[in-house]
Amino acid sequence: MKYALFLGCTIPARVKQYESASRAVLKALNVGVVDIREFNCCGYPLRNIDFKAFVLLSARNLALAERDDLDIITLCQCCFGSLKKANHLLKEDASLRNEVNSHLEKEGLRYQGGIEVKHLLEVLYHDVGMTAIQKELTQMYEGLPIAAHYGCHILRPSQVVQFDDPVSPTIFDQLIEITGAHTIYWPQRLECCGAPLCGINDELSMDLSKKKLDSGRQLGAEYVCVACPYCHLQFDTVQERMFAGKQRNDRLPSILYPQLLGLCMGIEGKTLGLEMNRIPLDGIKRFLSDSTEATYEKGVRRSVAG
Question: What pTM was estimated for this model as a whole?
Answer without folding.
Answer: 0.93
